Amino acid sequence: MGFQLAPTATADGFRLEAHDAVGSTNALALERAMAGDPGKLWVVSKKQESGRGRRGRAWATPEGNLAATLLKVLDHDLQYAATLGFVAGLALADALDAVAPNARFSVGVDGGSGQGVKRFELKWPNDVLASGAKLAGILLESTLLGQGRLAIAIGIGVNVVAHPTDVPYPATSLASLGAGVDAETLFLALSDAWSENERIWAGGRGLAAIRKRWLARAAGLGSEVAVRIEGNVVRGVFETIDEDCRFVIRDTKGEAVKIAAGDVHFGAVASAGAA
Q: Which residues constitute the signal peptide according to the record (predicted)?
């Protein structure tokens, strides 16, 4: 089957633009916004040739993986718009639960919550893990439009059939987990789960409920962590995320440190030093 929206997403007014291959679904979505698109547009592809991750890093999407971007045009301020990344993580995790209930989870590695975890986890701020390995990444990019509006591209990249091996962190794919799922099936579930989670978010008014749901899936909660922030490393124990979804750790001096942006490392990487 080709890409299609769930009936719930269609009923909520979402639209779909599907491609066999694109340069970047995020870039294409923002182009649509600059050309006057009103938002609520999903741009999807099974192949992405110039995708990007956080901090300008490349994100490979070979044939059969999922590259999906939701374009939203909002009147909300950037602070609340940024929390849509947590909505995206929850929506994807819910979709994965629905389409891959028999995924084979193994002993955790240098990320996630280690042994005994049999679920898809959310790693702050923007990754989805399986057995401590990166399965998916989320990237939010935005541009200001006229009349106080903000266009935000919520990019979601999932390793469906393949995962990179030349990266400095463990990675996995749905195929490696034994889940016989294709990108189209996953996207159908994702479009449904997004509608539900966005209703909970409610323009930022439901952020407390999103935070509670996110923490229930949080990778590494209560474990040793190292966070690299602009060349510096802060070490401690991952305690929570606060009401603004900032990462909170209890450092080696016993003080709570709130972090708005940074690269998070768990387990052995945290102990040895965040590279």
A: none
Residue spans of alpha helices (H) in the chain: 7-11, 25-34, 78-82, 84-99, 183-201, 207-216, 267-272
pLDDT tens column, 19-35 = 999 999 999 999 999 99
CA distances from 215 to 25, 121, 135 (A): 28, 10, 18
Tens-place pLDDT, residues 26-67: 999 999 999 999 999 999 999 887 655 544 555 567 889 999
Asked, for residue 1, whether it belongs to a domain, the answer is no
* Shared domain check, 232 and 157: no
Q: Is the dihedral of CA 26, 136, 68, 190 positive or negative?
A: negative
Q: What is the pTM of this model?
A: 0.91
Whether residues 229 and 146 share a domain: the answer is no
User: What whole-number distance in Å separates Cα of residue 134 and Cα of residue 53?
Assistant: 13
| Tokens at 80, concatenated | 């609340």
Those residues whose C-beta lies under 8 Å from the C-beta of residue 57, and which sit 6 or more positions away, are none
